[in-house]
Amino acid sequence: MKKSILLLLVGFSGFMNAQIPTGYYSQTTGLTGFPLKTKLRDIVTNGHQDKNYNWVVFATADRDKYYENDNSVMDIYSENPTGTDPYNYTIVTDQCGSSNGPEGTCYNREHTIPKSTFDDRTPMHNDYHHLLATDYQVNGKRSNYPYGEVGTASWTSKNGSKLGNSKLNGYGGIVFEPINEFKGDIARIYFYFATRYENEIQSFVYDMYDGSKTKVFKEPFLNMLLRWHQQDPVSLKEIDRNNAVYNYQKNRNPFVDHPEYIAQIWGTVMAVDDASFSKNLQIAPNPVKGSTITVTGDKDLKQFKKAFIYNTVGQNVQTIENPFQNGNTLTLKNLPKGVYILKTGELNTKFIVD
């Protein structure tokens, strides 16, 4: 979409915490591992209201205020973060229950965790934390295939989402791969679902699951979801959607509010070595030896009002206001040695503090 629109990302920042009801996660203090996951299950189950299967929440939760900023449908299968979208939908006007038309005809409701895996049971079927507004035809192409990373694509959507043979080590089936911009969104939805339905998920049949109520995911998929989460940190779009769904069904996705919980429960992987996630942004020197870096990109960086630095567990460790108004040099705040991600607008890259 329009290149001048900002995608402001925050992780564990004060802005995001201001949206969380006071005391919502107070019972998690001191917990880690699967006991933390179980306590989060209790928190997000308590108060969760099944609002049935309807279109109401999409009008507030799924409008594009981040790319074109035109209030069109925020569809992860048609969004082009760095250029013109292949098509746009108007909320309500272009919704459909079925269609014989090509991609770009209408949008419907995507169960990111396929409903066949839980036999259409409720409240899973009606849980809007994993229900997204998406193009009807792309939704159909995705079908009930697991998310994954495609080796050879048999079909590609107009925004670059792909269907094809998996290249994951340990899984050779057909998978669907969204574009990089939304892989972290999908990962945090899956970690939410694994937590919210901890007591039921052992009975769900899905190639991504290992049959347990704790770890939930088979190794190839767990490692992939952890990488996606680390490579694509929490976005303002996710924060706004989390708040909208909370206002509607009265529970939250804890991994949008506190992305660091994922590492505390499932661990981390070396995720930041995938160069495909670094988008048109460079840092020098890299590795960083001192407290300053010079940032360059393929567009005018002055347009970006904020820059965010994340560690490898998804925590926002530094936010810089108006970062490029007086040049391209940024000062780092005593960052420990390690690997980090710098994100500004839709641009991001990794760097190492040595």
TrEMBL record:
Entries under Pfam families matching the protein: Endonuclease_1 (PF04231), Por_Secre_tail (PF18962)
Superkingdom of this protein's organism: Bacteria
Annotated protein name in UniProt: Putative secreted protein (Por secretion system target)
Similarity comment text for this entry: Belongs to the EndA/NucM nuclease family.
NCBIfam families: Por_Secre_tail
SUPFAM superfamilies: His-Me finger endonucleases
Organism expressing this protein natively: Epilithonimonas xixisoli
Signal peptide location: 1-18
Keyword vocabulary terms for this entry: Hydrolase, Nuclease, Signal
GO MF annotations, alphabetized: hydrolase activity; nuclease activity
UniProt keyword annotation of Hydrolase present: yes
